[in-house]
C-alpha cells in the first residue's frame, strides 16, 4: 500500500509523540509504531525529569548544564547541553499544562528530588532538580503525550514495523517502508520528512533493563543505508538492576536515601566517590560495584551487592517508590522495608546513535552536513548531550526537549519543501529481506544466535573492556553473522508473524553490536561508560573527539569529529 | 522444574476455530510465565504468537488469561501457579492469532471519555498550582497502563456494550484532576446509558488490575459525583 504524508514519525515513545504534538493539526502527519503507543519503553522510566526550576532550593540551568557536561566526561557537545538545560524548564511547564500529574510541594508547586550527578554550584553537593510523579515519571510522560495525540487526532499506524528508509541518489529522505505486522502487508510511506524515534538497543546485552522490543531498528537501518553512527562505544550500565533479571530499580531509591552495601555491609561508595557517595554518576557506581565483586566483596562472594532501603521511613518506600517496591516483592519475594535488595549493573542506555544537530536533523560528517528531510530524536539519536555517560533523568529531558525541537524544525521544513519522487520499486529491499527470512532453509535458530550474541557482548563489551576481548568479540560476530545466513523460522504465515519480526530484529542487533565493538576497539582510552582495562586513563590529547562509524563496501570505516566546547574546559572528573 | 503449558492456539490462515496445544518446558520456580512462553517460542515452536515488550509489568502488552484469571504474563511467577498452566487470550475481544486480540474496540471506548486535560484558561507562565491533597485524588487512577485486564474481566463487558472499567478509570483520572474544566462534558459521557450505571460492583476488575488500582472504588466515586453534581 502507498501512503502520502508531509511528515512521518517512526516510534511512539516520548520523542516521537512530543514531535507529533508539534506537527498535529498543522500538517499531515502520521506516527508508525512497532507496538501500541502506550507500550513504548519511555513508560518504564521511573525516577524523574530534571529541570532547574529551583522550586525547593537554589538552582540554575547553567549548573544543570555543567553537571551534564561533567557527567558525560567532557565528550558532550556543550551547545547541545546548553539547549537541554535551558529548554528543560519550558518543557516541564508545557508538560504540566498538558496535565502531567507531578508530585507537589505543600504550596502547590512541582516537587523536586535528588538524583545522581546533579549538583549545586558546580559539584558542591547534591541538588533537588528532578521533577517526578512517584516512581513512574516515564509512564506519566508517555500517557500525557499519548493523551495529547488523541486530543490532536494524530494518525497512528499501530504495530507497523519499519523495514527500510528511502533516500534518493543525492541523499534526500523521501519516506520509509514498513511491514503491517497484523496482515503481513508492505506499506510505503512517501513523505517530505521522516523522524526516527525508535529507541535503544539494550537487547544486544544479556542482562538489560530494556524491553524485548529494543533492538535498535532505526539505528541499524540508518547504518545499512550507509549513513554514519556516532559514539557507539558508549553504552551505559545502570548500577541497580534486579539480580539476574536486570529489571531496573530507579536511581530515585538512592535519591530518597538508599545506600549500596557490599557483602561485608560496608557503604563502599565512600571509597570511590567521597562527595556524592551513592549518588555519583552511573558509570562510576557500576564500575565500583564490579570492583567490589572482583575483590571478593560481593554478597556471599557472588556477583551482586545490596541496595539497602531498610533505614528509610516505610511511607517513603511505599509511596514515593511504590513501583520499585512492587517489583522487589513480585520478582524477588523480598520486602524492601525490611530486606536489602540484591542488585547488579544492567545494560540500560545508549549514549551513541544517529548523529543529529540541535534541531534533530540527521548529519553525515564532521561538518554536520544534514540529510534533507531526515530527523532523529530520543535514545536512537546522538545530539550529543550525554557524551560518554548520561546523567539520570536526562534521558527524559532529552526526549521532550529534542523531540520538540525536531518536531518544530520538521514543520518548517515540510512547509518550505516539496515532496521528492520515490525511488523506483521503493519496497524491493524490504520485500527481499522478508521473503528471504520466510523461505530460508537452514539449521540455525534465531533465539540461539541471539542468546550467544548477548552472552558474548556481556562478557567482552560491557562495563570492562580490553583489546583482546573486543577482538574476540569481533571474531564472534563474524561467526554469528555467518550462522545468521542459515536461520530457519517455524512460522511461515503472513498474519502477526512475530517469528519473522524476531528474525529481522536479530539482524538489527548484529549491526548494532558490530558498530559498538569496532568503535570500542579503536578508542584506546577510558572515558565515561567506555572503560578499557588496557588503557585505564582518559586521554584528552588524542581522544577528546566523537567517533563516526560508517558501513562501506570495504567494511566499517571510522572517522572522528571534534567535540563542541563552549563554557567548560575539560577537567579531571572526580566526585 | 518442569511445567506443562496448555495454550489456546488459533491461526486464521489455517484454523476454523481455536484449539489447545500442550508444551512442556524446564523453568525455575521464580521465572515469569512470560519466560515459559519465551522458552516455547524460542526453542520449541516459533509459531506461538503473543504480545510482549517490557517484561516487568509496565507496558501492558502481555495481558492474557492464565489459569482463568486475567494477568500480565510477566507479572506472575511459575511458583504461584503450579506445574499445569492454562493460557488463553483475553475474553470479549476478537482473536487475531493465538493470544493476540484486537484491542481497537478497547481503545475506542477509552477515547470516548476525552482522556486528556481540558482547560482553556490561559496558562500561567509557570506551573498551574495543585496541592498534594488535590494531587492525591488522581494518584491511583493515573497508574493505569491500558492493558485491558480489568475490562475483559468484567462479566457485563462480555455480554453488553459499555464503557468498561478501564475507560471509566481514565475518565476518573481527569474528572478528579483539580486543573480540569470539563466536568459537565465528562459527567455527560459517564452518566449515559452505557456509562457507569452498567457496573454491578462485581469487583472482578479490581482483582484483575496488575497495577493494584482500586477500580471498582473509582467507578463508585464517579457514580457518587454524578449524583451529587445533579442534586
Please explain how this structure is put together.
The complex is a heterodimer of chains A (575) and B (231). With 575 residues, chain A is α/β, with parallel strands linked by helices. Chain A has 16 helices and 20 strands. In chain A, strands 1, 2, 6, 7, 8, 9, 16 and 17 form an eight-stranded mixed β-sheet that branches. Chain A has a four-stranded antiparallel β-sheet with strand order 11-14-13-12, with helices on one face. In chain A, helix 2 packs across helix 3, helix 5 crosses helix 15 (498-522) and helix 14 packs antiparallel against helix 15 (498-522). The longest helix of chain A has 25 residues, at 498-522. The radius of gyration of chain A is 22 Å and the shape is globular. By secondary structure, chain B is an alpha+beta fold. Chain B has two domains: 2-101, Ubiquitin-like (UB roll), CATH 3.10.20.30; 103-229, Fumarate Reductase Iron-sulfur Protein, Chain B, domain 2 (Orthogonal Bundle). Chain B contains eight helices and seven strands. In chain B, the strands form two sheets. In chain B, strands 2-1-5-3-4 form a five-stranded mixed β-sheet, with helices on one face. In chain B, strands 6-7 form a two-stranded antiparallel ribbon. Chain B is elongated and about 60 Å long. The chains are: A alpha/beta (575), B alpha+beta (231). Chain B: Its cofactor is [4Fe-4S] cluster; [2Fe-2S] cluster; [3Fe-4S] cluster. Chain B: Residues 1-91 form the 2Fe-2S ferredoxin-type domain. Chain B: Belongs to the succinate dehydrogenase/fumarate reductase iron-sulfur protein family.
The CATH H-level homologous superfamily of the largest domain in chain B? Alpha-helical ferredoxin
How far apart, in Å, are the first and last alpha carbons of chain B?
A: 60 Å
Q: What is the count of helical runs of chain A? A: 16
N-C termini distance of chain A: 56 Å
Averaged pLDDT of chain A = 97
The Rg value of chain B, from CA coordinates, equals 20 Å
Per DSSP E runs of 2 or more residues, the count of β-strands of chain B stands at 7
Task: Briefly note the CATH topology name of the largest domain in chain B.
Answer: Fumarate Reductase Iron-sulfur Protein, Chain B, domain 2
User: Low-confidence runs of chain B (pLDDT<50, min 5 residues)?
Assistant: none
| SS-derived structural category of chain A | alpha/beta
Query: Unreliable runs of chain A, pLDDT <50, ≥5 residues?
Result: none
Architecture of the largest domain in chain B in CATH? Answer: Orthogonal Bundle
Widest beta sheet: strand line-up of chain B: 2-1-5-3-4
| Morphology call of chain B | elongated
What is the oligomer described by this structure?
Answer: heterodimer
Major sheet attributes of chain A = 8 strands, mixed
Q: Let me know the average pLDDT of chain B.
A: 97
Largest interface: A-B, 62 and 61 residues
Number of domains of chain B: 2
What's the β-strand tally of chain A?
Answer: 20
What profile does the largest beta sheet of chain B have?
5 strands, mixed
Keywords (chain B): 2Fe-2S, 3Fe-4S, 4Fe-4S, Iron, Iron-sulfur, Metal-binding, Oxidoreductase, Tricarboxylic acid cycle
Enzyme class (chain B): oxidoreductase
Organism (chain B): Thermorudis peleae
Catalytic activity (chain B): a quinone + succinate = fumarate + a quinol
